[in-house]
Amino acid sequence: MEWLTQLPFEWFVLLLRLVFAFLLYFFIFLVARVTLRELAAVGEVGGGHDGPPGHLIVQSPGTTGLRPGTRLPLEPVTVIGRHPSCTIRLDDSFVSTEHAQLTWEHGRWWIADLKSTNGTRVNGRPVTAPTGLRYGDVIEIGDVRLVLAP
Question: Which helix (H) or strand (E) covers residue 148, if one does?
Fold first, then answer.
């Protein structure tokens, strides 16, 4: 360390500046690396698309005014009913205000009846508890028949 005491003051300041610049750029490098890792992890978790896979296709519209074949997009939690705040609004007299809820959990869709007046059916069977769905299942809500599609 004897060489450090023999350096002129200007050289000492230059050395400190170089060390400071190195540390600053090293810090920026580490922040960029962590940021890129986090963005990559979010991209993998998200699956590369905007939402969960799937939508409902209107098979029989009842009196809703929808056309058969209409695609209804699904959100991770989709509430189906007559109320304007529902994710999917079905204006049919046999549909309750908040009739049923579809939820994307553990890589699959689940449906639950929300204590509706006329009940919810999947493939002709009443839904009494949260039920796992498969693509192609027919969901009956009042007079409306919807098919779950990828």
Answer: strand 144-149
